[in-house]
Amino acid sequence: MTTVRRRPPRALAAVLTAGVLPAGAQPLADVSALQAEVRRCRGIAEAAARVACYDAIVLPAGAPRADAAAAVPAPAAPSSAAAPAAQPRPPVAASAADDAAHARNFGLPQDLAPAGPSSIETSIDGPFDGWTPAARIRLANGQVWEIVDGSTASYQLHGPKVRVSRGLFGSFFLHVEGVAQTPRVRRVK
Q1: Stretch 105-118: mean pLDDT
Q2: Residue 139 and residue 162: Cα distance in Å, rounded?
């Protein structure tokens, strides 16, 4: 019979190999003692107690650091002078040119368009009578979208506002003002 040894997940390995000791704690003498402690912690069913068990494991001083742990900066030691609280960085505002580029690429296959807005809003120029399966709808912004869900609808609208929104798994939906249905669409131009 072959014994299979399971390795802890990478995140756990990063925590275990970080080499940070709580005050007054003594590091484990060898790898087998460390493995025994990890096995003991794995056996704890309650999540908070299990995490506390992992946190209590003390590593030897020369323990190798995982790549993930090395990428995270160590917290600075507290100083006697009170340091000002770190202020979160404000989000970087996108320029109007970036917004226009994202709107132009909205709906293109992912390998052709970078991730952009979750929806676009425009209108349909002129009369709108609805759609049939595989109908192509030209929007005022120049984009052309094709109905791909096989639905049919008949409406008599003039220049309605529309919103094309991103769905799950790369799908897109057409929301027409004054229309209850939201057909699934695919951008063709």
Answers
A1: 66
A2: 8
